[in-house]
Amino acid sequence: MAASGGKQCLEYFKNGFNGVVLMDVRMPDMDGWDTIQEIIKQGYGNNAVIILLTADKGARSEKLTEFRQYVAEYIPKPVDLKQLVTAVKNYLRYLE
Fold first, then answer.
1. How far apart, in whole angstroms, are the C-alpha atoms of residue 58 and residue 24?
2. Residue ranges of the domains in the chain?
3. Per CATH, is 6-95 categorized as 3.40.50.2300?
4. Which end of the chain is more exposed for a tag (fewer CB within 10 A), N or C?
């Protein structure tokens, strides 16, 4: 399932989503940081593992430090597909 932006991502959580989220920092309607903050605020954090997947070099900055306990992994773009698949498989097992 793919969300077109942060608001749709939150709608998926509201409807019972539980799983791995590949979150970009730059998204329409809400950026990734605001979306993560809202996931936490709404209490959905226990229903997901968030992998930050972005070309935004600033993602490793203070924001990543601030949200570190909610972001399981940071994978820079361009994405190494083997790294991405391995990470998703590992975290899916964690959610079972």
1. 12
2. 6-95
3. yes
4. C
